[in-house]
Amino acid sequence: MTETLTHTAAPSLTDPRVLRGIELAWREADLLDRKEYEAWNALYAEDGHYVIPIDPDTTDFDNTLNMVYDDARMRGMRVTRMTEGYAIAAVDSATTARTVSRFLPVEVSDAEVVLRASQVLVAYKRGRHDLWAGDVEYRIRLGATAAEDLIVRKVVRLVDSEAAVPAAGFLL
């Protein structure tokens, strides 16, 4: 059974399925801050997508311009650039600290959890701090155990997505 929750429904953050989704989002954030990109990529389902749209309202990622729209192949290529050889993204990458919070369950079933959250990321590079903030939607496929849960889709909607955004050198 899938429960689509509304603003009037009291979302239960104590639901074990919701807690598993939140824990996966936190684990992902920790891996990214520690630059463990291969382990990060392993959190995604083979059919999973990592998306950073430009249009803050779009839901049609296939037919709109995105800053990032990575399927498994593109995520793998991105991880390779971040971890191997001489790539400016890897050699001169920022140190990051992110907070993912304000979780709200949107849909909950025994197979899948959809969460909305807020992310604030501070990046430090070359003596300068940059702030990146946005709303995040996680679609998480629940496995038989929490260790088998996978991200099916992560959409990061930056608060300034329609403005000029500098090259990051890290993953959101």
TrEMBL record:
<dbReference type="InterPro" id="IPR000391">
    <property type="entry name" value="Rng_hydr_dOase-bsu"/>
</dbReference>
<comment type="similarity">
    <text>Belongs to the bacterial ring-hydroxylating dioxygenase beta subunit family.</text>
</comment>
<keyword id="KW-0560">Oxidoreductase</keyword>
<dbReference type="Pfam" id="PF00866">
    <property type="entry name" value="Ring_hydroxyl_B"/>
</dbReference>
<protein>
    <recommendedName>
        <fullName>Aromatic-ring-hydroxylating dioxygenase subunit beta</fullName>
    </recommendedName>
</protein>
<dbReference type="GO" id="GO:0016491">
    <property type="term" value="F:oxidoreductase activity"/>
</dbReference>
<dbReference type="InterPro" id="IPR032710">
    <property type="entry name" value="NTF2-like_dom_sf"/>
</dbReference>
<dbReference type="GO" id="GO:0019380">
    <property type="term" value="P:3-phenylpropionate catabolic process"/>
</dbReference>
